[in-house]
Every structure is written in structure tokens, then in C-alpha cells.
Amino acid sequence: MGTFTNKKFRSSADAHNIAARYRSALAKHPFLLFGFPFIATMVAGSFFLTPATAVRYEKHDRRVRRMSKDEELGIGKDRRRVNMKEEYYKLAAKDLDDWEQKRIKRLPGEHDGVL
């Protein structure tokens, strides 16, 4: 019985095709024709996508900015100025020991927790 060769049969019509020439060159130089274009695409993509991600972070920085303590306390336009000493004395004047626990009305169908 005869031995079979490792070469695949290629017809003469396929020999002049670009795909056939690429396939045969790929077998000889796999990194140059497959690996290098892939790596080049990844590197070029990172350079081209960098400005797009920068726009995202710039938009976030415009929306969120650092506030001073006065701006934090006076965010609402009609708010009064808060004085810490005044608030302390208001709380100190209240009787915090005399209180009563009250149950609120539950929503319909909500479990009230009573056994």
C-alpha cells in the first residue's frame, strides 16, 4: 500500500487565489501574518480609546466638584445659618428621659411584628 503525503491537494485554480497564497504563507510565518496584526490592533486600539475614556472622566469631574463647609451647610437657598453652639443648647434644653414609644400605622398587607 502506498504512503500518503502530508501536503493537501490544491487545485490549480486555488493557487492563484489571494486566500490560498495567504494560507500557504501563514503556514511558513504564523506570527508575522497572524500574531503581529493582532498585537498591533490591540496596541493601536488602546491609543485610540484613551481620549474616549478621558472624556468620560472629564464629564464626571465637571458634574462632581469639591464643596466648602459653608456650601455644604447652605445647599438649600432658604436655609438658615447653622450655629453649632445654638444647636447644642437646644438639644441640652430638651428632656430626653421623658419619652414614649408609639407604633406607627402599617401599610395594608405589611406584617406588624406583633406575636
Question: What does this 3D model show about the protein?
Answer:
The protein is an all-alpha fold and 115 residues long. The chain is 52% helix and 0% strand. It is built from 4 helices and no strands. The chain has helices at 18-28, 30-63, 69-73, 84-93. Helix 1 (18-28) packs across helix 2 (30-63). It starts with 17 loop residues before the first helix and ends in a 22-residue tail after the last helix.
Summed up, what is this model?
The protein has 115 residues and is mainly alpha-helical.
Short descriptors:
115 residues; mainly alpha; 4 helices
Q: Using the CA coordinates, give the radius of gyration.
A: 38 Å
The number of distinct β-strands equals: 0
What is the helix content? 40-55%
Strand content: under 5%
SSE arrangement, N to C? HHHH
Mean pLDDT: 82
Topology (SSEs and partners):
Layout: H1 18-28, H2 30-63, H3 69-73, H4 84-93
Helix pairs in contact: 1-2
